[in-house]
Structure formats: C-alpha cells, structure tokens
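Note to self: the last two entries modelled the partners one at a time, which told us nothing about the interface. This time every component goes in together.
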Amino acid sequence: MGNAGGLFHLCDGVVIAVDSPGSPGVETLLLSSGRISAESWAAALAESVQTRSLQAALVARGNIGAAEARVLAVAALRDAAFAAAVGDVERCVVDEPVDEPLLPVAEGLAVDVVLSETGRRLDAVASLPVSLSPYRDRVVAASGAESADSTSERREIIAHATGRRSARDIAFAVGRGLYPVTVEVARMLGEGLLEIASPAASFSFAHGSLASLHARAEAGSAPAGAEPPG
Amino acid sequence: MLDYDALAVELQKLRENVTGVTDTVIAASDGIPIISDVAKNVDPAHISALAAADLGIARQAAEVIGLGTLSQTVVFGSTGYMAVYAIGRMSLMVALGDKGLNLGRLLHESRPVIERVGSILAP
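The predicted structure of the combined assembly is written out below.
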C-alpha cells in the first residue's frame, strides 16, 4: 500500500500478476494504444465471465494471438512491479484474493526473478543522465519540440506533455509501459525536447472571489464572483 | 473572502497523493465552480454542473432506496472516472481520474480533505 502502491497476485509460490495505479494494465495497454477497440474489449470481457479466461476470449475472437497475450501479461506484470517499487511503499498487507487478475501469466514468474528484474529497472532509472521521478515530475514540451524530427512514439509523448502530466500519466495516455516511457521521457529531457514543468504549469487554480458560501446563498441568484451586498 | 489558498493546497495534495487523479473541482451544490485545477480541455463550469446533477440524483437514490449516507458517486468509463463527493449540504468535490486511479484509495484519501474543505468553506 502506498503511492502508487501495487497488488501482487501470488499463486502456489509464483507471481501470476501485478496491478498498480502507477502502470497501465492490460486494458489500457490494449485500448489506449489503439491495439483493440473498446467494443472488442467489452465483448471479450463479457465472454470471459462464462469461460473464466479473458485470454481465451480475446484469442478466440481474433483480437490478439496467444503468444502476444502472454507477452502482454508478462510485460504488464513486470511494469506494475516496477511501478510499485519506484513509488512510496507505506506498508504491506497479505490477504486472500478478492478479484482474479484479468490476464494472469500462466505458470507465473518466480518471485526472485520479479525481484531481480525490478531491482535492475530501479537501478537503470536511478542512473539515467537526467534524474526523473515518474510520479512527481511533470513535463511539458519544449518550444519547437512539436516540429522537431522525431519518431512517432516521441511525437505522441510530446503531444501529451501538457505540463500537468508526469511520465506515468503520459504512459497511461499513450498506452505504453511506465518503465519504457520513463526512460524515454528522461532521454527527451536530456535532449531538450521536454522540460520539467513549472509549478504554475502543473497546477493551475482558477477561482472567483466569493466572500463566503453562505453569503452567496443568501444573495439568491448572485453569480459566483460577485461581491456580497453590504 | 474564502481562503482560496487553503483550498488550493487541499486540491494539490489530493492530486499529488492519489496516483491517477487528473483534475479536481470544488463547487457549490447548485453547480457553480468555487475553485478548480483542471487541464485546458476541461471546463470547470460544465464539470461542476454535471457533478451537481449526478450528486443530487445519487443522494436521492440512496435515500429512497435506503442505502444509508451517500459516500461517493462514480462514473466509470473505459478510459477513466469521475468521482463526486458531497461536502456538507452546500458544496461538492469532483475528482477526474484516468484508468489507473484506485478508487478505494481516492475515497480513503478524500475523507480528511472533505472535512478540511468543509471547514474552510463554512468556518
């Protein structure tokens, strides 16, 4: 439990899935990247209630191949483990499963494999030339970045770098993994395509000038921002 | 004047502490925005009006059906969420989130925020 935190699904001593608010899950990876349509996803989910396997439903419908489904499940697992580890961990709780993971990895990944891979990714992020917190640092496109010659992935990142979004938010917007997007954003920061957003760009508060809520209610139809009488 | 700085602090902390929250608005229960922190393509007035209507109906439903006190009402979309919380009887708070938002954590983190915002709005 923490920010972002994570839910590790263990079965017979192996990790079969990890979910985290910090990394896009299989639904976002498939939908936000445009790989499959929302309708196809919904239909596969509906079918999987009967068959008890979303993977089987997706493959049977021809949405994705069996090999791709496994690659996706493993990638989502690794990314979510990284997402939980790269944030703040407040405490750990062991509990009985409430929900089955959507796309578990058949036969799972050994715990020590997940740990060592996650450690490797944490080290990689810590030793990037530009230090970047995937959750706290919000990034904005540098002026002229839109017209720079870039790959389509980079152009997508630039388009979503509004100043309000962290690398994690951008990963969700483009439907790619937290780890690869974090590394790419750090590289783009180093190359001057992106900049760390100023607090004014990250948080922009708009408000009127009410004296109080009660006075406004008493004034009846006075619009927000109007000075109260007296 | 309302302590807008204090309200801003609460909204900023919520967005920082709950991964996945993308935009926040505090509004009066008739749908007029009080303070907002939203992306350029989000209209606080529009969101406030929608949230106020949503909350009004949800509260009525909870009362009529006998569900107890309303804690939150949430619109679930395929790419994100809108969660609305009552702040006393006169105001409300909206949190928009992307698909990664953990609604349980949002509800948990919102409770003290709702209390503090309530006292700022009605000292």
